[in-house]
Amino acid sequence: MILKIANLSEGIHELFFDGKPGEIGLPKPFLNSFKINLKMDKRHNQIVLDAVLSLEAKFECDRCITEFIQPIETNFKHVYLFGNEIPDNEDESVTYLSFEADKIDISQEIYDYAEIAIPLKKICQKDCKGLCSRCGTNLNVKTCDCKSEEIDARWLPLQQLKNKLPNN
After folding, report:
1. What percent of the chain clears pLDDT 70, i.e. is strictly above it?
2. pLDDT digit string (tens) for 146-161?
3. Which of 16, 36, 55, 123 has its CA 20 to 30 A from that of 147?
4. Distance set, CA 141 to CA 62, 123, 129, 130 (Å)
5. Burial (Cβ within 10 Å: 0-12, 13-18, ≥19) of residue 124
6. Residue 89 confidence (pLDDT)
7. Per-residue pLDDT for 75 more than 70?
8. Where are the alpha helices (DSSP H) in 92-136?
């Protein structure tokens, strides 16, 4: 996604974009549409980009293997500094531009922050019961007739402690 900065006056500029994730280089699991609200604060030697990215992704639940669609929202800031010399230290949230730059490409930042926003544990619902470890029945849909296994004697003191806790 290219933003034109030529002839952009100093101050705060708010922009809004929406479209299909493929249009901005976001592959599966992202689907349907995206929305991005940008606030650009332009000063003499820098632009501070403050973005809110909203989109949806299709996942498979890690507990019950059911497919579900989850909304994802991520906020990020990125700084663009104008200058002729680029310092050796690399801060990933800072990009250096020449004074002659007339546009900035924020595609990589959008991609990176969308990927980071994908949850590590993908759960279809907070109280997902998952699959039976013996027969594979989805316990969210129906209960199975499998008998629960006996607890290893080494874990009994821990089980007794758990039973003493409130809300159990």
Report:
1. 93
2. 877 677 788 888 888 8
3. 123
4. 16, 15, 9, 10
5. buried
6. 61
7. yes
8. 107-116
Asked if 33 and 19 count as a contact pair (C-beta separation under 8 A), the reply is yes
Q: Can you list the alpha helix ranges (DSSP code H) found in 10-155? A: 107-116
- Residue carrying structure tokens 């730059």: 101
Question: Does residue 122 register a pLDDT over 90?
Answer: yes
**What is the pTM assigned to this prediction?**
0.72
Helix (H) or strand (E) holding 47: strand 46-60
Beta bridge partners of 16: 37
**Tokens in use for 97?**
């531009």
Instruction: Give the span between the Cα atoms of 68 and 53, in whole angstroms.
Output: 20
Q: Do the Cβ atoms of 79 and 95 come closer than 8 Å?
A: yes
The H or E element that residue 94 is part of is strand 94-97
Sign of CA dihedral 29, 119, 107, 76: positive
pLDDT of residue 87: 64
Residue 85: what pLDDT?
A: 67
What is the SS3 assignment for 150? coil
Distance separating alpha carbons of residues 3 and 102, to the nearest angstrom: 9
